[in-house]
Specification:
Blueprint: H1 11-17, H2 29-45, H3 49-61, H4 72-76, E1 82-87, E2 90-100, E3 103-107, E4 113-117, E5 120-125, E6 130-136, H5 142-145, E7 152-162, E8 166-185, E9 188-201, E10 206-214, E11 221-229, E12 232-240
Helix pairs in contact: 2-3
Length: about 250
């Protein structure tokens, strides 16, 4: 199944309309999940009267944020790649909207877009604070090379943070391999290796610790907790992954 693609000239239109994943009570988990996907499908299909109505209905229905509990049946019922993201703003199921080279563009609530590259967040759009870009120096990206074959690794990158015009911030990262374990995603046990990443920037006075749960066969990141810029953390879980080779 090829990833659905969005025409580049319409990205701004979709970002402006992607408003969606708040639920007013725990009893609405199923409705929340369905409506979250409905927004993703509206985005992928273009803006019609029906999609506008769906988005408006979401704005009225969701007054506060609560944790979503997607089921395997709900995920399987929709023909889209799906990623669960938990931010301070709330819990959401994101839909894959575009793939450009090794970059995946995941669309979610309130106009938020997360861009992943080999499982690492390299850009965000629509958050109060955004990672405008993240570039690994040279060809030394251990995520691209595959963490599964490594014990430890380090790399240098340059990050752009906004607001504040904090561009070309040098960041040092060190990855250390942990124990082999397993994680449960939608009732399926996934064998993984946990990696801990320590990131720091002396220039910015920044320190953080991230975690990645990596498939031992090919380095695919099934789950992660990433502070991708100072004070902004996301937890990601692959529900229906975009993956060229499934085990």
């Amino acid at each position: 199944m090829d990833a659905p693609r969005l025409p580049h000239r319409r990205l701004g239109e979709w970002e402006a309309q992607a408003r969606a994943t708040r639920v007013s009570s725990p009893a609405r988990h199923d409705v929340a999940f369905a409506l979250t996907l409905a927004v993703g499908m509206a985005l992928l299909g273009g803006c019609t009267e029906t999609s506008r109505g769906t988005i408006d209905a979401m704005r009225l229905a969701w007054k506060s944020s609560t944790q979503l509990k997607p089921t395997a049946e709900q995920v399987a019922a929709e023909p889209y790649y799906q990623l669960r993201a938990t931010l301070a703003q709330g819990d959401a199921v994101l839909i894959l909207g575009n793939v450009m080279g090794t970059r995946e563009y995941w669309y979610g609530k309130d106009g938020v877009v997360l861009v992943l590259q080999h499982g690492r967040v390299v850009q965000t759009i629509g958050l109060p604070q955004n990672l405008d870009g993240s570039r690994v120096a040279g060809n030394a990206d251990p995520f691209a090379q595959g963490l599964q074959a490594r014990d430890d690794a380090s790399y240098e990158r340059m990050d752009d943070w906004s607001p504040g015009y904090r561009y070309n911030v040098p960041v040092h990262a060190e990855l250390k391999r942990g124990d082999e374990t397993s994680i449960d995603i939608l009732g399926v046990s996934r064998p993984v290796v946990q990696f801990t990443e320590k990131v720091s920037s002396r220039k910015a006075g920044y320190h953080a610790s991230n975690r990645y749960w990596v498939d031992p066969t090919d380095g695919f990141v099934w789950m992660s907790e990433q502070e991708f810029m100072p004070g902004v953390t996301v937890k990601l879980v692959e529900l229906r992954p975009y993956r060229k080779a499934m085990p």
